[in-house]
Specification:
Chain A: One of its GO terms (biological process) is rRNA (guanine-N7)-methylation. The complex is a heterodimer of chains A (131) and B (306). With 131 residues, chain A is α+β, with helices and mostly antiparallel strands. Helices cover 27% and strands 19% of the residues of chain A. Chain B has a domain of 214 residues: 3-Layer(aba) Sandwich (Rossmann fold), CATH 3.40.50. The longest helix of chain B has 20 residues. The N terminus of chain B is likely disordered. The chains are: A alpha+beta (131), B alpha/beta (306).
């Protein structure tokens, strides 16, 4: 499960107010390098909840990866930024697309219900009494 | 009982239904894929067209394109209006997810009850260089794991027939649709009831029951039922069509493929659920011939900015 996916998932457990964002508990995760496409990131960014993304990276033990506040667009998409090591766009790319959580859980912030992640796939199925 | 009236009280899923569905697809997905490829839905054919095996894959793609055209989804060239986020509800191994993601350059999330399908679909996406755009999760279409208003295009291709509560199913589709977003449902229905009828005839109910048992299908409803539900949710531009004539070559083709050497050996090495599903295929043909089963498309739009 990439953090891009985590950013779009919510808990529907009965009793949850928003069920979002889900807290990430990663037992096993890997990084896989993937080519950076600035236009792709530009398309994605408006739909990303920055707080949730930052929280996920912190949960993985990467407090230095992303700043609390989303950097300005001009900074992220500045000319040549993709080539600069440690630039905002490269960090965002790495966070969204290169981290893969293989085993772990997603925890509902309102009800503490745990959704397992198995072989990289979140299982969001609810039990009968949670609907 | 395999029919329903328009006023449906919400009912819990029959016990074992979701497990049955997951189990059926966990078991049979591989067999289907090895013979038919990654699209697990009917092909769309011209009326009276005789189709060869080679034509069926093309017809399955045509089904997707015809559905998009029917719903008047903006074309892929239109940078501003084309869908950017898509959810594939009941995604199978993600055939539609990958096709739509590629067509529109969009993000697509798929949900399925089958862990085997999710895993296979994600692997196929990775192999096709689409894993940035497509991810499949295990989740229940009646409790979609997404916040409200996420998706420009909400896609349900032949999964509606598995949903035990049609109202909840459609209301979830509406909930996750973005304002102005398009909802497309392609599904199996039973014929509309006449004004004088309160249910289908006993022999019709009987036929549907045998199909339901083999395919882990809960009660069916009619196209009118779907339209009523969409209206009750204040969805707009509601359109529906009967495409039964356009899918007529499909089941005979599936049966034919099952009777090939590859088909038979695959079936025999699969499991009971898959075999039972295969044995019931002639009943689908019967149902269509009797005018009982209707292959239906229902499309609509969520109100709001577009």
């Amino acid at each position: 499960m990439r953090l891009l996916t985590h950013n779009m998932l919510a808990s529907n457990v009965r009793g949850a107010t928003t069920g979002y964002p889900l807290k990430l508990e990663a037992a096993k995760w890997v990084t896989k390098e993937v080519e950076l496409n600035a236009d792709f990131i530009r398309g994605l960014l408006p739909k990303i909840d920055w707080r949730a993304l930052v929280a996920a990276t912190r949960a993985l033990g990467l407090p230095e990866l992303l700043p609390e506040e989303q950097p300005a667009e001009e900074e992220i998409f500045a000319e040549g930024a993709a080539e600069v090591e440690g630039s905002a766009i490269r960090r965002i790319h790495h966070a969204l697309l290169e981290i893969h959580v293989q085993e772990g859980s997603l925890v509902c912030p309102d009800t503490s219900r745990c959704f397992p992640i198995d072989k990289g796939i979140p299982n969001m199925m609810l039990h009968e009494d949670e609907v | 009982m395999a029919s329903s009236t328009t006023a449906q009280a919400p009912a819990p899923a029959p016990p074992g239904l979701k497990e049955g569905i997951a189990g059926l697809y966990d078991e049979s997905s591989g067999v289907w894929e090895s013979i038919w490829g990654d699209h697990m839905h009917h092909g769309f054919y011209d009326s009276g067209e005789a189709a060869s095996m080679a034509d069926h894959r093309r017809a399955q793609i045509r089904m997707i394109e015809e559905a998009l055209a029917f719903a008047a989804v903006p074309v892929a060239d239109h940078e501003e209006k084309k869908p950017k986020t898509i959810v594939d509800v009941g995604c199978g191994i993600g055939g539609s997810s990958r096709y739509l993601a590629k067509k529109y350059g969009a993000q697509c999330k798929g949900i399925t009850l089958s862990p085997v399908q999710a895993e296979r679909g994600n692997a196929l996406a990775a192999a096709q260089g689409l894993s940035d755009q497509v991810s499949l999760q295990v989740a229940d279409a009646l409790e979609q794991p997404f916040p409200d208003g996420q998706f420009d295009l909400v896609w349900s291709m032949e999964s509606g027939e598995h949903m035990p509560d049609k109202s909840k199913f459609v209301s979830e589709l509406a909930r996750v649709a973005a304002p102005g977003g398009t909802i497309i449902i392609v599904t199996w229905c039973h014929r509309n009831l006449e004004p004088s009828e309160s249910s289908l005839k006993p022999d019709e109910l009987n036929l549907l029951k045998r199909i339901c048992d083999a395919y882990y299908l809960p009660d069916w409803c009619s196209p009118s039922d779907y339209v009523s539900i969409a209206k009750s949710l204040s969805l707009e531009d509601i359109k529906t069509a009967d495409w039964s004539e356009n899918v007529a070559p499909f089941w005979p083709a599936v049966i034919k493929s099952a009777l090939t050497w590859k088909g038979l050996t695959s079936l025999l090495t699969s499991g009971w659920k898959t075999i039972r599903g295969a044995m019931v295929m002639p009943l689908m043909i019967q149902g269509y011939k009797k005018g009982l089963i209707k292959f239906t498309i229902i499309t609509c739009r969520k109100p709001g900015a577009s």
